[in-house]
Design a protein that fits this description.
Elements (H helix, E strand, L loop, with lengths): L1 H15 L14 E6 L5 E6 L6 H18 L4 E17 L5 E2 L5 E15 L10 E3 H7 L3
Antiparallel strand pairs: 1-2, 2-5, 3-4, 3-5, 3-6
Length: 142
């Protein structure tokens, strides 16, 4: 068992030194994606890895929503629906073994998803679900 642990030591070092998901298009390490809906809205998602906090995942989701709004020629977007999901990225057992079951140490990954619609002008009634895309990007940059 000791030799197995030593053989896997480089793997553990890489695992614990991994970085948070950067702001990027989705790949194996996470990132953003969007899907256009038949009725004109978009589903936008950001998936972090086990090293990305929930707060960062939410920030990156809203950043992508704002960028997409501007790319589509609009200034405002409204979040119609939003949901969060938390999953276990991996777990380590008490003996140092890797498992997908219940371990003594685990990293959670967060996924945020929002359905948004673009607005041609600023609504007359303010709402917490409506964002001014250029202002959001200006005030929430990295």
């Amino acid at each position: 068992m000791r030799y197995l642990f030593l053989a896997l030591l480089p793997f553990y070092a890489l695992l614990f030194c991994s970085c948070a998901t950067p702001y990027q298009a989705a790949d194996m390490d996470g990132g953003y994606s969007e899907i256009r809906q038949p009725y004109g809205s978009y589903i936008v998602e950001f998936q972090g890895n086990g090293h990305t906090s929930k707060e960062v995942v939410v920030k990156y989701l809203l950043r992508r929503c704002a960028e997409l709004t501007i790319q589509k020629g609009y200034r405002y977007f409204q979040i119609i629906d939003r949901n969060s999901k938390e999953g276990v990225d991996y777990q380590l057992g008490s003996g140092g073994g890797f498992s997908l079951g219940h371990g003594d140490y685990s990293l959670s990954k967060y996924i945020e998803r929002a359905e948004i619609k673009f607005l041609p002008q600023k609504p007359s009634t303010p709402s917490e679900s409506i964002y001014d895309a250029p202002i959001y990007l200006k005030t929430n940059h990295d």
